[in-house]
Design goal:
- With 207 residues, the protein is α+β, with helices and mostly antiparallel strands.
- It is built from eight helices and six strands.
- The protein is globular.
Length: 207
């Protein structure tokens, strides 16, 4: 997990999680190993982790991956913010402070249990939660390779409906997903939702 965390910090240098430090990132990514619905894999070159991808299996029961991950890494997050209080003014934290407050409330007020989303859930599918490539190794097709592996694992788990959400201003990522067969299902100023169906609904053939 140490190598994947290092890759994450290189792939997302401006992210709040990166600023919170190596220990926090490792704990955050550990969630993919302890939550039975989640999965993670990485790609390496000469022993170096150059990219990784994390996903979540949605079986139709509403669930919030962000809240579940925050709860798992709660103590590591508190420790990081106490050491670096200026991060409370980090742009990403300011955008998500309501989510942070809600999770503190859940931690101390709401009875323990599974974290579920109040929003309606899409049909059973696998969600692409994160995919990142070390900038020093971009341009080698590693992103495409991981997308293909994500599809393979999804099919192995019995899912042929894939979904992801990306920032609407990330034109490069949206273009890359489209080249890999993903299509836009909805979009607004903040985020764009995309999907890919890897099985033909009529013939049943795998695409």
């Amino acid at each position: 997990m140490t190598r994947i965390a290092q890759c994450h910090r290189k792939a997302f240098p401006k992210a709040l999680s990166t600023a919170m430090g190596q220990a926090y990132v490792e704990k955050m990514l550990e969630w993919y190993l302890v939550d039975g619905r989640a999965f993670i894999f990485f790609i390496e070159e000469a022993g170096t982790c150059v990219g990784y991808c994390g996903g979540l299996k949605y079986d139709g029961v509403p669930v919030g991956s962000a809240s579940s991950m925050i709860q798992h890494s709660y103590h590591a997050a508190v420790a990081a913010m106490v050491r670096k209080p200026w991060l409370f003014f980090h742009p990403e934290f300011l955008k998500k402070y309501k989510l942070a407050i809600k999770n503190v409330w859940r931690r101390w007020v709401k009875p323990s249990g599974s974290i579920s989303s109040s929003k309606s859930c899409n049909p059973p599918h696998t969600g692409l939660i994160v995919i990142g490539v070390d900038p020093a190794f971009q341009g080698k097709g590693y992103g495409r390779i991981m997308l293909t592996e994500f599809e393979r694992l999804s099919a192995e788990f019995g899912y042929h409906h894939l979904m992801l959400t990306v920032r609407s201003n990330n034109a490069q990522a949206i273009s890359a997903y489209k080249k890999s067969g993903w299509s836009v299902t909805s979009s607004d100023k903040k985020s764009t939702t995309m999907e890919k169906i890897t099985i033909n609904k009529i013939s049943g053939a795998i695409s």
